[in-house]
Please model this.
Amino acid sequence: MSAPFETRIRDSFARQSMMQTLGATLTGIAEGRVEITAPILEGSRQQQGVAHAGLTFAIGDSAAGYSALTLIPEGMEVMTTEMKINLLAPGAGDTLVARGRVIKPGRRLMVVQSDIFAVTDGAERHIAMMVGTMIPVDL
Amino acid sequence: MSAPFETRIRDSFARQSMMQTLGATLTGIAEGRVEITAPILEGSRQQQGVAHAGLTFAIGDSAAGYSALTLIPEGMEVMTTEMKINLLAPGAGDTLVARGRVIKPGRRLMVVQSDIFAVTDGAERHIAMMVGTMIPVDL
Amino acid sequence: MSAPFETRIRDSFARQSMMQTLGATLTGIAEGRVEITAPILEGSRQQQGVAHAGLTFAIGDSAAGYSALTLIPEGMEVMTTEMKINLLAPGAGDTLVARGRVIKPGRRLMVVQSDIFAVTDGAERHIAMMVGTMIPVDL
Amino acid sequence: MSAPFETRIRDSFARQSMMQTLGATLTGIAEGRVEITAPILEGSRQQQGVAHAGLTFAIGDSAAGYSALTLIPEGMEVMTTEMKINLLAPGAGDTLVARGRVIKPGRRLMVVQSDIFAVTDGAERHIAMMVGTMIPVDL
Model:
């Protein structure tokens, strides 16, 4: 039996067409934690051939947002109000994995974090860290 | 006659496959300033049907990076080390325009800003502001 | 005759004991804009003798917060929820001037900016840029 | 016997007059980790009587910077280039403790984090999280 928030997140994710464009999939959902994985597609690169920061940001932002969504009442959504990314290493590898989690839940604001890893032959390298704020909004 | 940096930027942009995926084009290049425009494609949306923050970030980051590239010596590239985005309004409209510029040039670090606007029937709305740091690297 | 928000801001500022500790004074109040000036006291320095980033941040944060306060209803306060500072140059000089302004007003969130300048013999140098979010709260 | 970096950090800290003004002391030094503790002095408050964000930022920034300093060669210093603070709860209590650590060391840039806690009767509450970038510079 899935957690009550799981269906909500899978439904919302399915409507994020950007996730399909990037080939991203939901690979983990737990209370306060969501994981999204994406291949580094031919069409997701920057000028040197590694992952564009836009890919890293997009899956990191969605993972963080959905981690917040696991903690808010049904009938509400979350929106990103601000997000900072620190890039730690180039996005070189086969896939990127973004792990979002809630640092500080709140009725008005939720502080969230995403850590993004590049995976090469199963080995993970920490390539980015994001910290931001989500705001609950009525659907 | 184009500025010496214009060819470099057009060549680099053409190698950013993510820009093609998003339908983005270079719509302005001047010393310390670069503009990138992208339609809000069917495949670039979040769950409510407006632009995904990943689109906003991707073109804002590239515009900011290329604005820095206009100011550094040939044979060098720039990389984003950190970037924060404050989202001011939903990305609803026909296209997004990102205008990047250099706030503070430097040999080791360059502080850059991008402002992103959603355009509907020619009217612009300021939807996001980004401030970050670019670092010059050898090609 | 002063603007209706001016008294509120002067009263609130007078209660910020940190501003007195730093020798800071309110040097400008207008709708959506507030300026705070502080000497670089002997006791406000970092290890190399220039202004500590804590001084820069403290007056920049207060200037930004009070610029937001000019736009919200009486009986409410604002609190900083997040703030990023990019340091552009060392804080060397006689005084620092922080100029805060509202980038995006809002009922739930206000995005604000502060620019901080070091002043030496009347000449200003841009030493820091801050962008953050203020949230209105009941007093 | 103290670690080789301990003396360097204690000497540098002693020259940060802002730390004395705020009553801050070094309460922990280890490789890649530094802790700074400060009372919430009468003169370090905002208008509602709790710690001014400037205090939180000042000790968080210094703790993060010194955590980076433990990892760089002698004869060099570090400078903050950017720092974001997310405020999680009001700074109410007797003292603040800032714990800085290095997330990603590097020759050109170091990404650092500080977590700041308010302590009341020995109980800690997480009040702020900071992530930023330090740059090594010659003394």
The longest strand of chain B covers residues 123-138. The two ends of chain B are 25 Å apart (CA to CA). Chain B has three helices and six strands. The mean pLDDT of chain B is 96.
